[in-house]
Amino acid sequence: MPIPKKVFQDKNFVEKQERAQNIFALLKKKYPHAKIALKFSNNWELLVAVILSAQCTDKKVNEVTEKLFKKYPKLDDYLKADTKEFEKDIKSTGFYRAKTKSILTTAKIIKEKFGGKIPRAMKEMLVLRGVARKTANVVLGNAYGIVEGVAVDTHVRRLSQLLGFSASDQPEKIEKDLMDLFPKKQWFDLTYLLIDHGRAVCTAKDPRCDLCPLSKICPSAFQFPRFQKQRSGAK
Fold it and tell me: By Cβ atoms counted within 10 A, which residue in 34, 36, 38, 195 is the most buried?
């Protein structure tokens, strides 16, 4: 009797899960202290920093918020902020007009709808302007230890594809694939392990497979121009 196709699919998925766990363990060993790089002292500052981090490096955001959080120390200060002045304050993070509107509008929503406190649920977080699942996951996880999903930023998206975790380019589909592949207890750490690895070794411009602890099990290992040239030279 032929084996049903579903059995092969299940077997492949089990193998995929096993490889994912091996990858997680190797990353955990290499980056034992992986965590959010943004600097903040309260939940509101965390939300502001995450909104500013869209299409911007954490390093630049930290430079901007060092001054910003001193100038606007409380949520109420954002309610009174001058739009044009605030745009100048965050201009170097990029997309400053959209980010200004998101932050100042969100400050008003939090004050009026949530009593000045950051919401504790995904559904409520998504009511805020400029907040999608990635931002909500980061804030909920770091503010309250509430994990409802996996935060998919540019590093997580790129590495998820390279490591064979997801074939999609859509953040929400990638998130679902990761949630299916990894147990919930690993979701929060997974984001920062992939981010740290994406910054340190598997960079967008020049992945260093020769330095990567995942090279023996990564389906994309040594498939990049640097190594293709080396192979051509060897011949």
Answer: 195
